[in-house]
Amino acid sequence: MPMTRLLRSTAVRLALGYATIFILSSMILVGLLWWRTTAYLDREVDAVILADTQAVGDRLRDFGLPGAIETINERVGKAGDERAIYLLTDPALVPVAGNLDAWPLEIGHSQGWHQIQLTFQGRIHPTRVLYVVLPSGFHLLVGRDVEDRATIRRSILDGLGWTAAAALLLAVTGGLLLRGAILRRVDALTLTTTAIIRGDLSNRLPTRDTHDEFDRLAQTINGMLQQIEVLVDGVRNASNAVAHDLRTPLAELRGRLEALLRSPPSAETTLQEVGGAVADLDRVIGIFNALLRLAEIDSGARLSGFREVQLDEIAAEVAEMYEPVAEQNAISLTLNAAPGLTVFGDPFLLAQAIGNLVDNALKYCPAHGSVALTAARLDEGGAEITVSDNGPGIADAEKSRVTELFYRGDANRDAAGAGLGLSLVAAVGRLHGGNLTLADACPGLIAKITLPSCSASTMGC
């Protein structure tokens, strides 16, 4: 597998990134550990050197040069510390006692602490020494071999190197395993999406019920595909329905005009026929206006008109507007709206949706029947608008289809309208984050628009 292709893998890049962070963190930790360790060792070494220097100086002051030489010889003898370094010289830097053959050139005449590479016992050792001048001009050099500190440093650096190599190896291995696992999921998604691209919108992305990121992504995409399939089917059915519903008024319009051309009637009859032609055109224009409103709602273009609205006031206005129609058809129209019922939405679309439900109920409700309009507050927040009647209702097999564009049940073929009323109501419900549900009233129909609370609405307040 080419390295460039491997590095293009997100999983491998993430694994290498984590390995880099781990290595850098380890270096910082080891650096801190090394700094603390060396500081402690330096303090210990310096304390021993200072104590030895003080002891030799005290012996020189109390017992003279023989006492100082005796002290140094005891410390470099067989029982002495092999890492200890001593050199006592006269004012001319000629060695008097100690385990060094000559005065180190690196030190010269600079008193104080020195860190040098010193040849000692036939080997070069890293050494820390203290140079002081004693009374009578004697020069004393006391030091310690600190090679053990260098050994500790090498061990720490070696451990860090092996740790970094192991971390890098584990990262690459883990990245490859993770890449394989991710690729298997991605390949499954790719196969499905490829089928969808070729036109099979019924395909859905596979899920494993693990509720991981891929499952949540697949569920989201499946929901989107479901909506796309519904919209595509709606467009396909709408095209057929538009052609079917427009054919009748256009054919009637053509017949009227053709009859006027064949045998021109009187002026009064001509005006009547022109009026009928205008009515046919108004019906066609009404259908197109309804389609444009639905397209506008589904596109979300009406979100700019959202604000806090009093749903009880809108329901009262709709009931007042349809009261004359109900009285004309001897139908009882009642209103029960909770006061102060506030929702977030477009007041004009909500009024149109409620009006469509009331209009449908009045249209299919028999004489001396009853229609009830209710606006209530839900326990979990939000609101519910209910329109119920005691008319013929809708068959269970048709309830899932009556919100489709231009769909009209067999029992309603002769009724006026284009089959767009409930489609618009469902679209308004979706736009407001709610839904439209239909249920039997036994007899009659119960239509409910459920709207979410202001805080639960995706549009916000």
Record the SSE blueprint.
Blueprint: H1 3-7, H2 10-76, E1 84-89, E2 95-98, E3 112-120, E4 123-133, E5 139-145, H3 147-197, H4 213-262, H5 267-298, E6 307-310, H6 311-328, E7 332-337, E8 342-345, H7 347-364, E9 370-377, E10 383-389, H8 396-399, H9 421-431, E11 435-440, E12 445-451
Parallel strand pairs: 7-9
Antiparallel strand pairs: 1-2, 1-5, 3-4, 4-5, 6-8, 9-10, 10-12, 11-12
Protein described:
By secondary structure, the chain is α+β, with helices and mostly antiparallel strands. Helices cover 56% and strands 17% of the residues. The chain contains 9 helices and 12 strands. The strands form 3 sheets. Strands 2-1-5-4-3 form a 5-stranded antiparallel beta sheet. It has a 5-stranded mixed beta sheet with strand order 7-9-10-12-11, covered by helices on one side. The longest helix has 67 residues, at 10-76.
Short summary:
With 461 residues, the protein is of the alpha+beta class. It is built from nine helices and twelve strands.
Total number of beta strands: 12
The fraction of residues assigned to DSSP E strands is 15-25%
- Give the spatial strand order of the biggest sheet: 2-1-5-4-3
Secondary-structure-based class equals alpha+beta
